[in-house]
Amino acid sequence: MSLLADPRWGEALAHLPDYLGNHVRVSLAALALGLAVSLPLAILTRNRPAPRAMLLAFASIVQTVPGLALLALFYPLLLLAASVALAWFGVSFSAFGFLPAMLALALYSMLPVLRNGITGLNGIDPALIEAAKGVGMTGRQSLVMVELPLALPVMMAGIRTAAVWVIGTATLSTPIGQTSLGNYIFAGLQTQNWVFVLFGCLASALLALAVDQLLGLIENGLRRRNRLRAALGCAGIAALVAATLVPTMGRSSQGYVVGAKTFAEQYVLSALLRDRLQAAGLSATARSGLGSSVIFEALKAGDIDLYVDYSGTLWANQLHRTDIKPRAVLLAELKTALARDNITLFGELGFENAYALVMPKQRAEALGIRSIADLAAHASTMSIAGDYEFFSRPEWAALQKAYGLSFRAQRQMQPDFMYAAVASGEVDVIAGYTSDGLIAKYDLVALDDIRHAIPPYDAILLLAPKRAGDQRLKAALKPLLGKIDIATMREANLRASGNDANSSPDAVAKWLWGTIRHR
Amino acid sequence: MPSSPMIGYAHVTKSFGSLKAVNDVTLDVAEGEFVAIVGGSGSGKTTLLRLANRLIEADGGTITVEGEDVRKVDPVALRRRIGYVFQSGGLFPHLSVADNIGITPRLLGEPSAAIAMRVDELLELVQLERAAHRDRLPEALSGGQRQRVGVARALAARPRIVLMDEPFGALDPLTRDALGDDYRSLHRRLGLTTVMITHDMTEAILLADRIAVMRGGQLLAQGTPDELTRSGDAYVLELLRTPRRQVERLNALLPQSGAA
User: What ipTM was reported for this prediction?
Assistant: First the structure.
């Protein structure tokens, strides 16, 4: 099938008003806030070298923080601020999505605006500032009539750089709950949907280019004192903002929001949950690509209404438990603990997505490795790869302790690339997931955890505090409980990892429902 | 001198750190007078000029403008009523010739129609063709044209006093001569009081009524060229001798008759 005829372009296009609109709103709001803070600072410090140096140092440090980390940092920060605001002033606001994304991006935009602003204002011939004084200008008149116009080209270059940066970095705000063009990219990377990745990249590049050109038009108009051009540029930006507001109007309530973390299984399950709610006549949307630390807090705060998590994950990350209990006991304790936060553990879906040490079946058989205990003897000559969090998780510590594991090398990888890496022999063992469809595809085997070092990871449905007594919701979800066994989920995940039209989360969710509905 | 001077310096001092840029200077400029302040670089002549419109604030002594102590006048208002011609123009590069000339009236809030008329008047006064120059940016002008615009800008708000900071120093000799003569006649026609800084004694003698000689922050001598020749100061006499010596050398080198 030719690339252009791929139906996924159409699917991508359908999301465009929502993703693009949110992207434009958060980027331009961040840019406006960044400018509102940075420009006055640049002007105020133009004759004060000491605070100027401090300001530039601060902005430079912010710039060295990777965009993804900066955005991720703002979520707990705002969560804290929100709880303080609620406790002290009785004001509540959402620390999820727009606010943390906008603040982090605004901070990110400061360096080019500050640096170019300061450079532009300091680069003016002192004789001209003297002349401005000499003809009878006040300090403010000199600033407005002489210094700012002369610094304009350099300042605008900084503003344009900031705009391009912010629009590009805004794609990383998806994991903290801000819908953006990054939704295409995160979803595409996780589900091997390269059409989505390409679409997201193209859309954000075009948006950056368009905004840059409009700012250029404004600059040109201001410089040549051509009101028409400046007005056209401003009108262009205003039109962009207005266009993004249209789709949100008339959509008063979003209804139920289904959360999903950043991997394929979660995209499929959130699509399934959304479809079930809609089939029950409830309005529902999926909010995908949320960071795994963000999503639980978002549920607790009511920013999302439901999502699927895994018992062992919550056991370790939320309850901070390192001991291991039998499956049923762990679930019961978890349910009680979550209830203290008013979160409902509604039930299990029927499969487990646990960490498992995985290696090629042939190699395991050749070496006589069946369990992790067998592997331990060979570990010192082998390399292991895991996802970005695995090696800092308690499960890894527990595994090492229980089996005395010590590998020659350990590497971190994007989860989707791990399986190919171990299949090709680039690494010897990976910390994979038991529900992953790629285990079957690459003819891999998950080694037995005979000493039960890894806790059970039952997929469980969690409901937000405000949905605790929601009977319609519970009725809609009930048919899913216990219906998805590991083989079905693996098959679904395998389908989702394909790179064709039938592998979109929506399509796989429909297949999944078709498979389990009569069970 | 009749009545109070237009500009009066009485025992004025100004230091920059340990450097005494202006050291106990007393100098009066009468109404309608054209005074040149002559001195080398670092003599304090520019500082002395800028003290008058408070671009620089004095440390000690008293400066009066039109009889008022400048410390009691708002510096911005003071600068708007004193014309100032900057070295090599000081024109704002982003503003047209007309906008540069009209800047002080605009700051004073005059209506734009009146400013436009005034700009045309001034262009004629400094002999710049209106159609060709009015809407140009300074970068499109020659050095002499820029300085004519600078003079027009200084005169725009009809000041009674004009301060000039080496206005013709960077120009080629022919332009410089023409511009100097043209300004001299404007000065007389408009009844201006002018203080001009120059390092060139020839220019000072040709244009000014009186000359003040500065060196190392001090005023060595002041008076008409004729009075200066009777000064006992060796430096002043040396400065005065220079133009004549140049003429003698020129006469020796150039044929007496002919085109020159």
Answer: 0.89
